[in-house]
Amino acid sequence: MKNRILLVDDDQALINMYATRLELAGFEVATETGGQAAIRAVEHKMPHILVLDIMMPRMNGFAVIKELRKRFADSLCPVIILSNLSSAQVELNDEVANTLGLAHYLVKSRTTPAALVRTIEDTLRLRQLANDKL
Fold first, then answer.
1. Closest Cα to residue 47, out of 109, 110, 123, 99?
2. Is residue 35 within 8 Å of 63, Cβ to Cβ?
3. Which residues 6+ apart lie within 8 Å of 121 measured at CB?
4. H helices of the chain, where?
5. What is the pLDDT of residues 16-68, one digit of tens each?
6. 3-state class (DSSP) for residue 85
7. Residue 87 pLDDT exceeds 90
8. Is 113 helix (H, G, I), strand (E, B) or coil?
9. Which of left, alpha, beta for 94 (phi over 0: left; psi -120 to 50: alpha)?
10. Rounded distance between C-alpha atoms, residue 96 and residue 58, angstroms
11. Domains (ranges, CATH) in the chain?
12. Residues 99, 37: Cα–Cα separation, whole Å
């Protein structure tokens, strides 16, 4: 069974680039371009990993996570933020990210598609180790 990744970003070119690399790595990839659609996609079929942009129109990534945490509490899959915020904004948002229980906070300009694949693989491996201990 392939691991399912839900990739959410309002930039279709970035979605295409990252999705192609994730599929080549053997993941099943679903994509959405907005927050409400992301919530519906998670409700329909929980992914193994959610990769989420922050700056999106109508509903930003933090609002998406808060809503998903309300609905799924501890059963929500690991969430990786992939954002293009400046360094100062990233430091500010790291505190919020930790509060929301994110697996990782990545900056797009410093994250190649290959690096995203490695981060997802590491996250899945850690989650499996944690589950094995239970």
1. 123
2. yes
3. 25
4. 12-24, 35-44, 61-72, 87-99, 113-133
5. 999 999 999 999 999 999 999 999 999 999 999 999 998 898 999 989 998 99
6. coil
7. no
8. helix
9. alpha
10. 19
11. 4-133 (3.40.50.2300)
12. 24
